[in-house]
Design goal:
The protein has 97 residues and is α+β, with helices and mostly antiparallel strands. It contains four helices and five strands. The chain has a five-stranded antiparallel beta sheet. The longest helix has 10 residues. The radius of gyration is 13 Å and the shape is globular.
Length: 97
């Protein structure tokens, strides 16, 4: 696993909107279950923006959220889109870009 953080290289006006982390921290399966309970199931299944912070925590935000905003302007270990679906009665990641 690469532990080198990636920094945002995009437009500064986008980075300026990242005053606070917009992504929800998912540290445990219970965190995910609580997040799903607060989120419309259709939104959970559709692609979501994700980052893995330097703290190793997965953060989720609605699709089309800029990764730098999801990360609160911090550098990240990974970023992309993720989709979830119910597999054998449990939520599972079914696609990660």
């Amino acid at each position: 696993m690469c532990n080198r953080p990636y920094v945002f290289l995009g437009p500064q006006e986008v980075a300026a909107t990242a005053a606070g982390r917009s992504g929800d921290a998912i540290r445990t399966p219970d965190d995910f279950d609580a997040w799903v309970a607060r989120t419309i199931a259709r939104a959970v299944a559709g692609p979501l923006t994700f980052v893995v912070g330097r703290d190793g925590v997965l953060y989720l935000a609605p699709r089309h959220t800029e990764h730098v905003v999801c990360a609160g302007g911090d550098s990240v270990l990974a970023a992309g889109e993720i989709s979830f679906g119910v597999v054998k009665g449990r939520w599972s990641a079914v696609s990660v870009s």
